[in-house]
Write a structure and sequence with these properties.
The complex is a heterodimer of chains A (449) and B (334).
Chain A: H1 2-9, E1 23-25, E2 31-35, E3 45-46, E4 53-54, E5 59-62, E6 71-72, E7 77-86, E8 92-100, H2 120-129, H3 142-146, H4 152-155, E9 169-173, H5 183-190, H6 195-206, E10 211-216, H7 221-228, E11 233-236, H8 246-254, E12 269-273, H9 274-286, E13 292-298, E14 306-311, H10 316-322, E15 332-335, E16 342-344, E17 357-361, H11 379-383, H12 390-398, H13 402-407, H14 418-422, H15 429-439
Parallel strand pairs in A: 1-14, 9-10, 9-12, 10-11, 13-17
Antiparallel strand pairs in A: 2-8, 3-5, 4-7, 5-6, 7-8, 13-14, 15-16, 15-17
Chain B: H1 20-30, H2 32-42, H3 44-67, H4 79-89, H5 97-112, H6 125-136, H7 138-141, H8 164-171, H9 173-176, H10 181-186, H11 198-210, H12 217-236, H13 244-249, H14 253-260, H15 271-291, H16 298-308, H17 310-313, H18 328-333
Helix pairs in contact in B: 1-4, 1-11, 2-3, 2-11, 3-4, 3-5, 4-5, 4-6, 5-6, 11-14, 12-15, 15-16
Bound molecules: iron/sulfur cluster (2 copies).
One iron/sulfur cluster is lined by residues 384-386, 388, 390, 413-419, 429-430, 433 of chain A.
């Protein structure tokens, strides 16, 4: 009974059965716009110049720190220009514009069957050189997952704390954080052959001393058990947002709470999404760099939802055209999930390694967001996964009493957006919190800048 | 890169669909059974009173919005109409129209808008308006008409119409025993237009809980409190103190439980805070009813007092996620 009431207010569940959709490859557009900043940390340095011929899979940008990864040319072609352009995740960054030639073809690979005998350092290095990142608003690099000491911004939260404990739990999750997003579920059904090896690789990289868990949705239990083939213990978790967030996955599986702003490593847990694990495996075993993304295209302007395989740098316009989605009714175009994704101002915005979903919305039924009064209904307090008081916090933000929100531990906010989703007043909750954190120079979740 | 005229804003890009208007309209819908009972019992007088109250509430709200330079579109959310409706349902059906207008004006102007409007007031504006009326014209708003369709038995017939609680206070528990609990629950007792219609109010309250407009914690805490504290008194001396069931179905108790106590702005918003709030309201109700002089408005006075303590109830909350153990106390202070 209570459960069903909860469903009325919070119908946000992980997408189901999208993983069974056929995945078609989007043909290469005439021009690819490959951003050199597709990650947190510094922008990659370009190693090609205008006029150069590039081959598919050739490195075009060098990662400058451990929070980032190399950038590769997705296709054969010619570099037309390197220019500054708006980044889908905010700000401006350099873009390598590649005029493509011919058909899409697979990239050249440099297989290394003997990868398990390499040291972890060598493996991490190779993964970084192959450009493997997680997806999401600020995709963490493999380095920052397994070796936070290398990543200054992840370390801030550790200053003054004890050294990181050894990793005793490794969580490979096949659950997507947000509704609609379905890339990790897709991996379980479609690439199950690689799952055991990927888990083995992750065990090696994380030097896990205790158990390894493969978290999956109840609908995928059978597939997951088959795919894990004894490498990991399969745990079924509910796909209800925001419980699917990495922080809460850790909490639900181990009972440990990650300190605000710290990485899961600080409680001895490593969490890695299955797609990233498989991409890392392909990088070290087959030598395949990450040059494309499997993108779910959904939203109320898209019926039915579709999954496509698009090259990095393909403008959203081409993907929508390939999916037969008319542009005219679309009022909002979101890269990433419908809750925490970034809305784009132009259909020409190219996708990056962070984009696993494109949500096209008509936005005709929504009451617009406005600075309405909080009516203190308590819904946000009830549903906030960080157990904060978003009603009070948002009032302080609204009237710019920023000292008070620091005292009330805004740093614990996961920026999950649940408070904004259920607020009857349609207050711009997430905007308040993100703005306040920016003003107070507090660490943000999911911010690349 | 050209802009494509798309909307750019911060997530969440989808919304659960709840709105202030939905909240208020649902509460008005939930009052329909109570209104129907009121019309059945008091006839056209009830319709007249309700019409006056709702119209006055909307006019006052509009004037205040204009005076405070707020957009008049806020009228459409129905909160003013709800305030007027709730107030008039507690008044006698034949109360003069100007009393209704003054009461509604006090609710909207003093209780609600002067504090900053919806969401900002510390006291339930409906109760504020009612208290102002009670202090100004106690004779007028406590003079109950005899409801139609009600069987009067025994001595009560020869007395002026009084609420069952007044009879209990003045003539003792034995006297009030002649009203059957079931009759009272069905609404056959003297009182306000809709505030004594027990069953109809319960239907409305369950509707609100099922629609997730109000949370179940406050009503459940309140009802449990009535049984606990009323039960303790009753157990001590059944000839002196009425039974908890009597307390539950008589007067405005059920109206307060489902419509006044869980009011969003003036109730706590943590789970245990709400339950405790309900329990405390119930305890005060019983105490005021048993020992106080204003037995008639006991539940409303209890809520008014407890509104003051809401910030303290809000402190009863789980520790914040991921905060180090030692600063958990510090978090509770924040
Ligand atoms: S975004 Fe809102 S609901 Fe989510 S953690 Fe932050 S305050 Fe809580
Ligand atoms: S959900 Fe919105 S209106 Fe309700 S308490 Fe939170 S901020 Fe206030």
């Amino acid at each position: 009974m209570l459960n069903s009431l909860y469903e009325i207010l919070m119908p946000l569940r992980a997408a189901k059965n999208l993983d069974k959709l056929p995945v078609n490859a989007v043909p290469a557009p005439e021009f690819l716009y490959v951003h050199l900043k597709q990650h947190e940390g510094a922008e990659a340095a370009p190693v090609v110049k205008a006029g150069d011929e590039v081959k598919a899979g050739q490195t075009i940008g060098w990662a400058m720190d451990f929070m980032s990864a190399d950038v590769h040319a997705p296709m054969d072609g010619k570099v037309v220009d390197i220019e500054r352009q708006p980044n889908p995740y905010g700000g401006f960054s350099s873009v390598v514009v590649i005029k493509t030639e011919g058909k899409r073809k697979s990239v050249e690979s440099t297989p290394d069957p003997d990868y398990l005998s390499k040291t972890n350092g060598e493996l991490l290095h190779r993964i970084r050189r192959m450009g493997v990142m997680c997806e999401g608003p600020a995709p963490p690099s493999i380095h920052s997952i397994f070796n936070p000491y290398m990543c200054p911004s992840r370390l801030v939260a550790h200053v003054g704390r004890d050294p990181l404990p050894p990793v005793d739990t490794l969580i490979v999750t096949a659950i997507d954080e947000e509704p609609i997003v379905s890339i990790n579920q897709y991996m379980i059904t479609r690439q199950s052959n690689d799952v055991p090896e990927a888990i083995k690789l992750m065990k090696k990289l994380s030097v896990v001393t205790g158990r390894t868990v493969l978290a999956c949705l109840d609908t995928q239990k059978k597939e997951a058990e088959k795919a894990a083939s004894g490498e990991a213990e399969v745990r079924i978790m509910s796909g209800r947002y925001p419980g699917t967030l990495r922080e809460l996955t850790v909490w639900r599986l181990t009972g440990r709470e990650i300190p605000a702003g710290a990485s899961p490593m600080s409680v001895g847990v490593a969490v890695i999404p299955l797609r990233t694990a498989i991409a890392a495996l392909k990088a070290v075993r087959d030598g395949i760099p990450q040059t494309s993304m499997i993108v779910t295209v959904a939203g109320d302007a898209v019926t039915p939802p579709q999954m496509v395989d698009a090259l990095i740098g393909t403008p959203a316009r081409d993907i929508l055209k390939f999916c037969d989605v008319p542009e005219a009714p679309i009022k909002k175009l979101v890269f990433g999930g419908p809750i925490r994704g970034k809305s784009q101002f132009s259909f020409d915005m190219p996708i990056t390694k962070g984009v696993n979903t494109i949500v096209a919305l008509k936005v005709d039924k929504l009451v617009p967001i406005a600075e309405n009064n909080c009516i203190n209904c308590g819904a946000c307090v009830e549903f906030c996964p960080a157990r904060l008081q978003p009603n009070m916090l948002s009032r302080h933000c609204q009237f710019r009493v920023f000292d008070e929100i620091v005292k009330k531990h805004i740093t614990a906010c996961l920026e999950c957006g649940v408070c904004g989703y259920i607020c009857p007043s349609r207050r711009p909750m997430l905007q308040y919190f993100q703005n306040a954190k920016q003003q107070m120079k507090l660490p943000r979740k999911g911010n690349m800048l | 890169m050209k802009s494509s005229g798309l909307i750019v804003d911060v997530g969440p890009h989808i919304h659960g669909g709840n709105s202030i208007a939905r909240t208020m309209h649902n509460q008005i819908i939930a009052l329909i059974p109570a209104i129907a009972v009121g019309v059945y019992m008091f006839g056209a007088g009830a319709i007249r009173a309700i019409a006056v109250a709702v119209a006055a509430a909307v006019v006052f709200e509009y004037l205040m919005l204009r005076a405070l330079k707020k957009p008049a579109s806020a009228l459409a959310d129905g909160s003013a109409a709800l305030t007027g409706l709730l107030l008039v349902l507690m008044l006698p059906a034949d109360v003069p129209w100007w009393v209704i207008v003054v009461g509604v004006g006090a609710s909207i102007v003093i209780g609600k808008m002067l504090f900053g409007g919806l969401g900002a007031y510390p006291f339930n504006p409906v109760i504020v308006g009612w208290v102002i009326l009670l202090l100004s014209w106690p004779g007028l708003i406590n003079k109950w008409p005899r409801p139609n369709h009600m069987q009067w038995g025994g001595i009560a017939e020869s007395l002026p119409a009084q609420t069952t609680i007044e009879i209990m206070k003045r003539y003792g528990v034995q006297m009030s025993d002649q009203f059957s609990i079931l009759d009272s629950f069905l609404g056959f007792q003297p009182g306000g237009i809709g505030s004594v219609a027990g069953l109809a109010l319960v239907i409305g309250g369950v509707f609100l809980i099922a629609r997730n407009i109000i949370s179940w914690q406050v009503p459940v805490g309140f009802i449990a409190g009535i049984f606990i504290f009323g039960g303790i008194y009753h157990a001590v001396d059944p000839t002196m103190y009425a039974s908890p069931l009597f307390h539950l179905v008589s007067g405005t108790t059920l109206f307060c439980i489902f419509f006044l106590a869980p009011e969003h702005t003036t109730s706590p918003n943590t789970k245990w805070g709400k339950i405790l709030f309900g329990l405390c309201c119930a305890a005060l109700t019983i105490v005021i009813r048993t020992h106080g002089t204003h037995a008639n408005g006991s539940a409303r006075f209890a809520i008014l007092l407890m509104n003051l303590l809401v910030p303290f109830f809000d402190r009863i909350r789980p520790p914040i996620l991921g905060l180090p153990k030692k600063s958990k106390e510090a978090a509770a202070d924040a």
